[in-house]
Design goal:
With 307 residues, the protein is α+β, with helices and mostly antiparallel strands. 43% of the residues lie in helices and 19% in strands. It has 2 domains: 67 residues, no CATH class; 169 residues, Glutathione S-transferase Yfyf (Class Pi), Chain A, domain 2 (Up-down Bundle). The strands form 4 sheets. Strands 1-2-3-4 form a 4-stranded antiparallel β-sheet, with no helix packed on it. Strand 3 and strand 4 form a beta hairpin.
Length: 307
């Protein structure tokens, strides 16, 4: 919450507020490289959240996420592998935003253009507009869509080697990331125009693309065990940490929640070695000795007390 402006555990801010209280607050201070930072996030029932970075009120949390890179693994993140294409598209678009901050808004801009074109298609279907009126939005969808495909592919190429290496260390060999989808063109969109008008939606483009996550040529969504799917998601997180560290020379904060529960001894030792290369990682576990390495700091949490 303090570095990203939202919690991966809750869809609504109100569920993060203590029972019987009207508000909640998360404050953090630290440094990114040689630069100090302080964040203040306030949640109030019935009101929007308030987020400040170094005393400045932020209009959105995008800037917070771009300046304080945090990578998170939780058990429900297995949906990145076993879920539908939309989950993988969202994951890679977040990775693009972290790897190339200048492109952080590209996916949202493309989605807005598709929404405008879809609205135009429905107006044409209702005979409230003409097909010629769709042309500007078609060009916009093609322009933004082509760029979005290019930056997604570039991000996967950046992550690919580190993903394969991390997966191999965790016992998942020949792991690859494959982008599925072509750059949209006006010719293709024009050829589908009659169908798109009838359905009221844009039927081709990166909003329908997918990322195939494989190991030894097997699509892990269909042919991977839950253990392999967990290894793939963890390898993705560690690969992005490596890529961000190489690009900025500053390591992101890595948060690994309940990552050890389905790892055998060899994989726990492999993970411990990999984490030693990260600048700062927080690991939660049900037992202090679950990770076979001495931590820099150990916090034991029980109801009402942290030691």
């Amino acid at each position: 919450m303090g570095t990203q402006g939202f919690s991966p555990r809750a869809r609504k801010d109100g569920t993060l507020i203590r029972f019987g209280a009207d508000a909640a607050r998360v404050t953090l201070s630290g440094s990114v490289g040689q630069t100090s930072f302080a964040t203040d996030t306030v949640l109030t029932r019935g009101e929007g959240r308030r987020v400040e970075l170094n005393g400045e009120r932020l209009g959105s949390t995008e800037r917070l996420r771009s300046e304080l890179a945090t990578l998170v693994f939780t058990p429900d993140r297995l949906a990145v592998v076993k879920g539908g294409p939309a989950t993988r598209r969202a994951y890679i678009d977040r990775a693009v935003a972290r790897l190339v901050p200048a492109r952080a808004t590209l996916a949202a801009e493309y989605a807005s253009a598709v929404g405008q074109r879809n609205a135009g298609l429905r107006r044409v279907r209702a005979r409230l507009s003409t097909r010629d009126a769709l042309a500007p939005w078609t060009r916009r969808v093609v322009e933004l869509g082509a760029t979005l495909v290019e930056v997604r592919v570039e991000a996967l190429q950046t992550l690919g080697p580190a993903f394969a290496a991390s997966a191999h260390e965790l016992g998942l060999d020949q792991a690859t990331l494959v982008y599925e989808g072509d750059i949209p063109t006006e010719r293709v969109l024009d050829s589908r125009l009659a169908e798109d008008v009838e359905r009221g939606i844009t039927s081709v483009g990166p909003h329908l693309h997918d990322v195939r996550i494989e190991a030894a040529g097997r699509d892990l969504r269909a042919f991977g065990s839950q253990g392999e799917q967990r290894m793939a998601v963890l390898a993705l997180v560690l690969a992005e940490a490596t890529a961000l560290r190489e690009r900025s020379s500053v390591s992101p904060l890595v948060l690994l929640d309940d990552v050890l529960s389905e790892l055998d001894g060899d994989r726990r030792r492999a993970l411990a070695g990999m984490l030693a290369r990260c600048a700062q990682t927080v690991v939660t576990a049900t037992a202090e000795g679950a990770l076979p390495v001495d931590p820099a700091l150990s916090l034991s949490v029980s109801p009402g007390e942290v030691r």
